[in-house]
TrEMBL record:
Disordered: annotated segments: 92-117
One Pfam family of this chain: DUF2516
Membrane-spanning ranges: 12-29, 49-66
Entries under InterPro entries matching the protein: DUF2516
Keywords: Membrane, Transmembrane, Transmembrane helix
Organism of derivation: Streptomyces demainii
Compositionally skewed regions (Low complexity) per UniProt: 102-117
Domain of life: Bacteria
Protein name: DUF2516 family protein
Transmembrane in keyword set: yes
């Protein structure tokens, strides 16, 4: 019975570690595709700073187990980027959610362009 529990816990930690790795890789790629001037405009450190932090977080998640101390720090840094920095960058860059309308001008209403009539 103990072997089944240990094996189940091991599988759970395996999938959690993969999830954290994918989460940190998503944040790293997202930070890489953002413009440098957006970081300065949002007053959120620099692009190089976030690339280094998130790259280290992804590397630590890849090479270390989930129960170590450094992956938890990497997870915190990734959460800070996704929850705080990314929305600020999207707001500064004008990359807010436009779905389901698509990419229209600022004078577009919910049913199409506003003509002023």
């Amino acid at each position: 019975m103990d072997g089944v529990l240990v094996e189940g816990f091991g599988k759970l930690m395996y999938w959690v570690s993969w999830g954290l790795l994918l989460f940190s890789l998503f944040a790293f790629v997202d930070s890489a595709i953002r413009r440098e001037d957006a970081y300065r405009a949002a007053d959120k450190q620099t692009k190089a700073f976030w690339l280094i932090i998130l790259g280290l977080a992804a590397a630590v998640n890849f090479f270390m187990g989930i129960l170590d101390f450094l992956p938890i720090i990497g997870l915190i840094a990734t959460i800070v980027y996704v929850v705080d920095v990314r929305p600020a960058l999207r707001q500064v860059s004008g990359g807010g959610r436009r779905w389901p309308r698509g990419r229209g001008s600022s004078s577009d209403g919910p049913y199409g362009p506003f003509n002023g009539r």
